Each structure stands twice: as structure tokens, then as C-alpha cells.
Amino acid sequence: MTRRMMNWKESDKISSGLRKDRLCLDNNGVAGYFEDLPKLLFILFAVGLFVTNTIIVYGAYNRFNESTMMMDNLNGFSDEILNWDNITLDQEGVLNGQAFDNMDIDDWEYQFSPQLKNFEYQIMILDRSEYIETLHGERQNFGPISTEDRPIGVDVYSKSTPIVVEDEDGNYRASFMIVAIWR
Question: Which three-class secondary structure state does DSSP give residue 1?
């Protein structure tokens, strides 16, 4: 048997014939890069979902911390008001009604500066004593004492505290002090 060497043209014909047969007869086929496309899309979707959820959770965490800090500021600010010497009397928990009449916003801002407090505030005293209404005919409300108008679309934190206010006649009036703060 003689061995004959094939030239490159003959070998190319044979190999191309085999490739055609294989593509025609074989059901597997070759897809190339498109075979990994669904996996790639799934990975991109999963990473995008992870990043989105991380951003949402981080924002919720910051809102919770801001809310907690503002509630702590509100409680401390309310206590400062109730212990302020200009409006308190010698009795604990009794505020001076005449002092509220004689004070203006400058007195409040001097004692409780919004720049130092890092928030704006509004204070109202609402008279809720029922027997005063029948004896004297009107309620004695004070305020609102506000450093600036309440903005729309901003979180406002408020607290209502029951207090007693002594009026100029020496009568004690059951009242509520409503303190609101915002940034």
C-alpha cells in the first residue's frame, strides 16, 4: 500500500465535508456566546436587585436614625421649656401665664436659638379648663410662638404635655403645651 500525501486543498474538502455532515446530522449544534446569555441576564438582574435593596434599606436606616434623634431633641427641648426660669413659678409643674403675655419671639429665640438647637420650633399653650369657661367666659391660650412657618412636605415632630398655668388672678388652668420641631 502506498501512502499518498494529501495536499491542503484535498484535506480542506474532506474536513469541510465532515463539518457539513456533522452540522446536518448532529442535533447539538454550537451556539457560541449566546449560550451564556440567559445566565448573564440572570446575574445582572440579581446584582441589580441586590443593589436596589441595599439602597432602600440604607435609606430606611437613615430615616429611622433621623426620627429617633428628632424625638430625643423634642423630649429634651420640652423639658428645657418646662424648667425655664422665665416662665416657671416656685411650684413644680406650674407655669406663669403673665410671663407668656409679656414675652415675644425674640425672648424665645434668645433662650432657645434655632441655630444652636439645629431645628425650628413652634410652641402653643392651649387652655383646657372647663370651669374657667363658665366663670370668666374665655379660654386663655398662648401662641403660636414660632421661629418660622411650618413648611409643607417636611417631617414635623410634635409633643403634647399637660401643664398647669397660673393666670393673673391666681387661678390655675389645666392646659396643654404643644411643642413641634422640624428641620
Answer: coil
The rounded radius of gyration (Å) of the Cα atoms in the chain is 39
Tell me if 73 sits within 8 A of 119, measured CB to CB. Answer: yes
Task: Find where cell 448573564 sits.
Answer: 40
CB 78 within 8 A of CB 159: yes
By C-alpha distance, which of 57, 58, 65, 95 is closest to 78?
95
Other C-beta atoms closer than 10 Å to the C-beta of 150 total 12
CA distances from 42 to 39, 47, 50, 164 (A): 5, 9, 12, 65
Nearest CA to 70 among 178, 170, 145, 157? Answer: 157
Instruction: Give yes or no for a contact between 172 and 94, defined as CB atoms under 8 angstroms apart.
Output: yes
Q: What is the pLDDT of residues 111-130, one digit of tens each?
A: 998 888 899 999 998 988 77
Encode pLDDT of 31-75 as tens digits: 566 677 888 899 999 999 999 999 999 999 999 999 999 999 999
